[in-house]
Amino acid sequence: MSRGKHIxxxxxxxVIGQPGCRALFIGLPQLIKKxxxxxxxxxxxxxxxGFGLTEELARSFFSLGVHVITSGNHIWQREEILxxxxxxxRVLRPANYPPKVPGQGFVVVEISGRKIAVVNLxxxxxxxxxxxxxxVGSSIVDKLRKQTNLILVDFHAELTQEKEAMGLFLDGRVSxxxxxxxxxxxxxxxxxxxxxxxxxxxxxCGPLDGVIGSVPSIAIRRQMTQIPLKNEIFDAPSxxxxxxxxxxxxxxxxxxxxxxSESFGV
Length: 266
What we know:
alpha/beta; six-stranded mixed sheet
């Protein structure tokens, strides 16, 4: 677990259907052990056959060592998760949905005697025009910093420019800002000038040989015909993708950020 004052966070990208779940069930315990992760956060909005999340899957992820499950615009596609979100606040939905929407967008967990906050936000460009993630995120972070300097942000957004802007906007106020949603891992990991770890997109926990996790032939036909064919999850060996961040446990500043992309052959 945590070595001295350092906290190690393992942050994983969108879990894609059964292939992603299989890789997670086999590979996550190995990743946790390899990186000596103190906290594990993953995005689960695509875990249930590609759309949404179920209580059964959420409980399974927690049993594997996941501490917090973030999500995005697809979390609403399985209504059965909504009652569980009320019972277990470790399943998040983006905080900048309008008031009275089920669930909550941030949580504080205690691990090894330290409070660690996780915040879930969603972008607006080329997505649903919900409340401003910058204003909502800033307000939440200000409140959380009264409890802890250790704050991890999953920004579920489409455009790189929106994600980079969020990283710089929260630089020095949170420990890490990582993007999800596009399912393609970017290679721009860095520590921003004021000490926040950043990556535009964590990638996916699923098959890399598909089209963002879906069957290639269907995806190609959609593009060539413009017919809105239903995507299907590509059942192929999967990777677990994300980052490992080392964070100063006192200041909350990031010390390092390293990409993870490992195949477990299932």
